[in-house]
Amino acid sequence: MSRILVLVRHGQSEWNLKNLFTGWKDPDLTEKGVEEAKSAGRKLKAEGFVFDTAFTSVLSRAQRTLDLMLQELGQTDLPVTRDVALNERDYGDLSGLNKDDAREKWGEEQVHVWRRSYDTPPPGGESLKDTGARVWPYYIHDILPKVMAGGTVIVAAHGNSLRSLVMALDGLTPDQIVAEEIATGVPIVYRLNEDTTVREKRVLEG
């Protein structure tokens, strides 16, 4: 019984590079992002992973990252479920804005609160807590049963949707999760116990 869950944040996007708030906007990967995705696939192949199913968001940067990883793995026929529940946090009125311009408009402290607090959303957008409120039920009802059936499951998603999952899996507090950074294109491998708790966690860096 494998009970393995692999989480991967999409490779660098064009808006990551331009220092823009992305959220539910849909920019593509940069050349670096493409290489990060391929590298993640190669790391997983070197570890011998054979996946049973995959999950991703409805945003192209996550979908393309998954496609590139599966190409490297030689597993392009894998069943893939795409769902809005795994989308990045919605930044609302900040979406598409340069982060420095946002600081000029609203002030350094306010933008920092929107970006790094747990439960204060930007205007028209979601907090990390709001993001978790859609990610956690989807994980419990759709992803976790596949893992607990003995599967090996990969999820390609976004910084904040994955932070929500990491918060639950690692048992982190709101204060701890806001300080947690998830690198682009770096697989996080969980092996779960029979009671759904984490037996082992590894981050495939380098």
UniProtKB/TrEMBL annotation:
Question: Which pathway does it operate in?
Answer: Carbohydrate degradation; glycolysis; pyruvate from D-glyceraldehyde 3-phosphate: step 3/5
Provide the E.C. number(s) assigned to this enzyme. Answer: 5.4.2.11
**Any one Pfam family match given in the protein's UniProt record, by short name:** His_Phos_1
What keywords tag this UniProt record?
Gluconeogenesis, Glycolysis, Isomerase
**Subunit and partners:** Homodimer.
Q: What does this protein do?
A: Catalyzes the interconversion of 2-phosphoglycerate and 3-phosphoglycerate.
What family does this chain come from, according to its entry?
Belongs to the phosphoglycerate mutase family. BPG-dependent PGAM subfamily.
Name it: 2,3-bisphosphoglycerate-dependent phosphoglycerate mutase
The scientific name of the source species is Jiella endophytica
What gene is it encoded by? Answer: gpmA
